[in-house]
Amino acid sequence: MNIRQYLDSTYLKTSDQANLSEAENTQIVKNTIEEAIIERFKLIMIRPDKVSLAKEMISKAQSNLLIGTVIDFPEGKSSLEEKLAEANVAIQNGADDLDFVCNYEAFKNGEIDLVKNEILQCTRLGLSNKKVVKWIIEVAALNDTEIIQLSVLIKNIIIQNFDENDYSSVFVKSSTGFYKTENNLPNGATVPTIIMMLENASPLPIKAAGGVRSYDEAVEMINLGVKRIGTSNAKAIANGETSQNQY
Ligand SMILES: O=C[C@H](O)COP(=O)(O)O
What we know:
alpha/beta; TIM Barrel; 8-stranded parallel beta barrel; globular; binds glyceraldehyde-3-phosphate; Aldolase_TIM; EC 4.1.2.4; cytoplasm; Deoxyribose-phosphate aldolase
């Protein structure tokens, strides 16, 4: 198995440190894009305002690195119109993958029609532009029943509204990597959570993200059956190392 094929390289935390000036911030993102090109990762996951920069660097380097970006990150609370507008700009700027944060608070509050509609409309926008779409469900904010229900909801929307050939382009993703639990418990890609997602979202693929820190954890996720891993520690993992949790 080639672990590099599974790795998204996500550096959202480093590019989001509030104490960095805008210039330093951009330089950090540049460094991580460059690293992802050199390391030949599958994809660099960056904030929407850095997509054009990544596009330029990737084309200059004649690299096959894909660009992913996050929409309505990290809380997923914006309106459908705002989500669509942000996604449209990312598409125009050259993003390949759109990782939408699902409005999981609305889901928890029983506003199911709102959630269904955003999943349907945003997925339609992504797929009609030949993009990969991912739905971040923020598992740490949900109990087990909610994780199962939301995975099933997303699966059913896709199965009922899109062609079978599109299923592999719509992922359910575990975490933003930004959610803070009160006691700092692991808040993303834990084994029990990923198993629940795999069992309930199939045939949609799963992206394990949030807290994947070591080569062994990444391999465990791959063996469970995930199709992507999102991590801000991609380089260390690809080199068989463990890195510190950044929370
Ligand atoms: O998908 C993106 C996440 O930021 C990955 O989380 P992480 O920083 O815990 O690896």
